[in-house]
Amino acid sequence: MSRPDATRLRAAKPGARITLAHGSGGKAMRDLVENVLVSHLVDPELSRMDDQARLDLAEFTARGDRLAMTTDSFVVDPLFFRGGDIGKLAVCGTVNDLAVGGATPLFLTCSLILEEGLEIALLESVVASIRDTATTAGVRVVTGDTKVVARGQADKLFINTAGVGVIAPGVDPRAKRIRAGDRVIVNGPVGDHGAAIADARGELGTEHDIASDCRPLNHLVDVMLKTCSDIRAMRDATRGGVATVLGEFAESAGACIRIDEAAVPLRDNVRGLCELLGLDPLYLANEGTLVAVVPPDAAQAVLAAMRRHEDGRESAIVGEVFDAPRGRVILETRFGGERIVDRLVGEQLPRIC
Predict the structure, then answer these.
(1) pTM of the model as a whole
(2) DSSP designation for 17
(3) How many separate domains does the chain show?
(4) Residues 63 and 123 in one domain
(5) What contacts 24+ positions apart, CB below 8 Å, involve 201-208?
(6) What's the chain's average pLDDT?
């Protein structure tokens, strides 16, 4: 199929906006899909404009023995923020959910919910970001969908994605495999994304110059698994932050995880924003930070491998697993005390992803 003429819609109508006709299934919708979506997300499967992608099973079986699938939706406000946007976020969130399960991400779907009145130029920027981030991650967007709702029935743009990947034999990270003596590693500073979104909303009238950590982690995870295929568990610390991940790990494993507050990487500007707003950075969302639990005899090797990778240069061992008290996360504070890290009650910041 020849590449669509991307000038028909955009050049003919500067400042064009989404109308209900763009979701009608007619010519306006066809022009939108061809000229704004497919023209950016260049892929042979997507360009067929069929109702499904047809994928060769040989590509899966050559890489592993189990299929991994995930799905996610993205409603972040604002759509653009320092360090990313909703398109980059959608790809990273889906890729990372696959990667921390030990899977090699291969294919994505992308569905867009557009509000009437959305600027088409803005939509193009988001789609270009999806393309660029997918290229960085090494995944393909192979099928998708577009719906339009009336003005006031959405907030500009929502995205839903699904991802498919393959897990290699012998790789099985899951919380139930955690045991006493294991070490807890994070790949960088915590709370950057949540702080960046709070800053981007401009409600404080201050400028903290905080950038989101939004990035695909599959290449880093690949390095980690090549160093130690027996990584006990991994999770990307998105909503609820590192504290929520650790709580889920401790509960699932029936173990106690003790964390050294002084060892947890935290940027000064994020610390300052948290102090201003009364937020705990351990609960702030991340979009490029993972938590891994590794066997004690592999911890230093995994840490060294992570620090050699650009997405893990600030990695740190932040804690250890103990037998008791079961299901608890205990923070050893900078001042020599201890406190229990409970599950988050309520929502610190809504619509952060």
Answers:
(1) 0.93
(2) B
(3) 2
(4) yes
(5) 201/77, 201/78, 204/276, 204/277, 206/276, 208/269, 208/272, 208/273
(6) 93
